[in-house]
């Protein structure tokens, strides 16, 4: 009986468990899933624009006022080489010689009109436009005794470059700018077909001269003829000239002057610290990248120095060749002629200042600068002849101006 009761109890317990498990397994109704917002569409990525093609090298066509064979043209070529290297070949200068595009004396107007992009010349060629032009070539007499470095100091430290640009753009209304580049001084007095001992011998001679210097010599009694350097030799050979002035040293040797004249007089005070110019059309200048402009500035300054120091040695070698190969008599310019030149120039400068306000403005600026540096330099610098004569004493013959080799 007990066994049956236990069996029935187990049976009921098992049934209860089974029913319980069945209830637990009953499915609950499905709840709706939360709504998931779709992500925003990815932004549209524009393809980058194609890289611009690298611009090729830019070439500026420039012309000088010099024959191709001269060292003045070497100065121009050196400048072109430096610009090429400083810009990594991106700016090139085509350095043409006189006459390849326009005549030698027409490069300023050609640059203004953009017939050429620039030029290599000297400002005193433009005195027909305004006589103040000569003052930016540092002629005559320095001015006021300035040497080349003093003049360059006035250009860069005394306001000279600003006046130079004003001269072209405001006074002459020309679309050009300029930089100093060619320090071809001091220049010799000149070449003669006979000796000159004093101012009287000098008067009446027909001589190639240019710029304001020609006016000074005319005032002193010389007959002057203006012509480019390339015309001097044929004119002398035809007997049209009794004398000629070009530059001196290596320039005169290359031009051929020792072959047509026997007497060479030094020194001169007409171009004792002359500096030639680099001209650039102002629109061309503005079109250049800032780095290219700086390359031109730096190349012009480097050219002035590097060419100048080389040129001094070339001049020394040329003087020796003139004497030994051509028998040139290199003589001292009579002092009374040099003093007469300075006096004549002072008169012309005074007359021009009275009627040309811009001439006066530039000349006054140069006088103010020279009044400081020239007397100070005279005080600080020993005369060149002091040390030169100590180490390289002149022979009595050379001192007297006989021109014989030591």
What does this 3D model show about the protein?
There is one protein chain. Helices cover 48% and strands 12% of the residues. The protein has 406 residues and is an alpha/beta fold. The chain has a six-stranded mixed β-sheet, with helices on both faces. Helix 12 packs antiparallel against helix 13. The chain is globular and about 90 Å long. The longest helix is centred in the C-terminal third of the chain and has 37 residues. It has a domain of 244 residues: D-Maltodextrin-Binding Protein, domain 2 (3-Layer(aba) Sandwich).
Short description:
It is built from 15 helices and eleven strands.
What percentage of amino acids are in beta strands? 5-15%
Helix content: 40-55%
Alpha-beta content class? alpha/beta
Tally of strands: 11
**Mean pLDDT over all positions:** 87
What is the radius of gyration? 42 Å
User: What is the overall number of helices?
Assistant: 15
Distance between the termini: 164 Å
Query: What's the CATH topology name of the domain at 58-187 and 269-382?
Result: D-Maltodextrin-Binding Protein, domain 2
Tell me, what's the shape?
globular
Largest sheet: 6 strands, mixed
Poorly predicted spans: 1-30, 399-406
**CATH homologous superfamily designation of the domain at 58-187 and 269-382:** Bacterial extracellular solute-binding protein, family 7
Strand order of the largest sheet: 7-6-8-5-9-11
CATH class of the domain at 58-187 and 269-382: Alpha Beta
User: What is the H/E order?
Assistant: HEHEHEHHEEHEHEHEHEEHHEHHHH
Provide the fold topology:
Layout: H1 2-24, E1 58-64, H2 71-86, E2 91-96, H3 107-112, E3 118-121, H4 148-157, H5 160-171, E4 176-182, E5 190-192, H6 199-202, E6 206-208, H7 211-219, E7 223-225, H8 232-237, E8 243-244, H9 249-255, E9 263-266, E10 276-281, H10 282-287, H11 290-326, E11 329-332, H12 335-355, H13 357-380, H14 384-391, H15 396-400
Parallel strand pairs: 1-2, 1-3, 6-7, 6-8, 9-11
Antiparallel strand pairs: 3-10, 4-10, 5-8, 5-9
Helix pairs in contact: 2-11, 4-5, 5-13, 7-12, 9-11, 12-13
């Amino acid at each position: 009986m007990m066994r049956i009761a236990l069996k029935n109890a187990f049976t009921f317990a098992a049934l209860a468990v089974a029913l319980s498990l069945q209830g637990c397994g009953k499915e609950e109704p499905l709840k709706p899933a939360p709504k998931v917002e779709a992500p925003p569409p990815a932004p549209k990525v524009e393809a980058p624009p194609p890289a611009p093609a690298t611009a090729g090298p830019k070439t500026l066509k420039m012309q000088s006022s010099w024959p191709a064979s001269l060292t003045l043209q070497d100065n121009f070529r050196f400048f072109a080489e430096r610009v090429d290297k400083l810009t990594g070949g991106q700016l090139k200068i085509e350095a043409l010689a006189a006459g390849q595009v326009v005549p030698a004396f027409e490069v300023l107007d050609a640059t203004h009109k953009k017939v050429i992009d620039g030029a290599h010349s000297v400002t005193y060629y433009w005195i027909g436009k305004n006589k103040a032009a000569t003052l930016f070539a540092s002629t005559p007499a320095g001015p006021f005794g300035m040497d080349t470095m003093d003049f360059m100091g006035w250009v860069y430290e005394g306001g000279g470059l600003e006046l130079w640009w004003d001269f072209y753009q405001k006074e002459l209304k020309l679309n050009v700018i300029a930089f100093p580049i060619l320090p071809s001084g001091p220049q010799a007095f000149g070449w003669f077909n006979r000796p000159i001992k004093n101012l009287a011998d000098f008067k009446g001679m027909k001589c190639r001269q240019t710029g304001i210097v020609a006016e000074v010599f005319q005032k002193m009694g010389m007959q002057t003829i203006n012509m480019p350097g390339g015309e001097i030799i044929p004119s002398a050979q035809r007997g049209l000239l009794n004398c000629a002035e070009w530059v001196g040293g290596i320039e005169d040797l290359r031009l051929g002057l020792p072959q047509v004249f026997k007497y060479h007089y030094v020194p001169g005070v007409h171009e004792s610290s002359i500096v030639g110019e680099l001209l650039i059309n102002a629109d061309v200048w503005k079109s250049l990248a800032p780095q290219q402009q700086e390359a031109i500035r730096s190349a012009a300054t480097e050219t002035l120095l590097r060419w100048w120091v080389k040129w001094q040695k070339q001049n020394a070698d040329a003087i020796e060749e003139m004497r030994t190969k051509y028998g040139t008599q290199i003589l001292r310019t009579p002092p009374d002629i040099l003093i007469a030149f300075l006096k004549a120039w002072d008169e012309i400068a005074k007359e021009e200042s009275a009627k040309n306000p811009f001439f006066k403005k530039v000349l006054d600026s140069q006088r103010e600068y020279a009044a400081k540096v020239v007397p100070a330099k005279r005080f600080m610098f020993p005369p060149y002849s002091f040390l030169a004569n100590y180490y390289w004493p002149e022979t009595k013959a050379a001192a007297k101006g006989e021109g014989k080799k030591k």
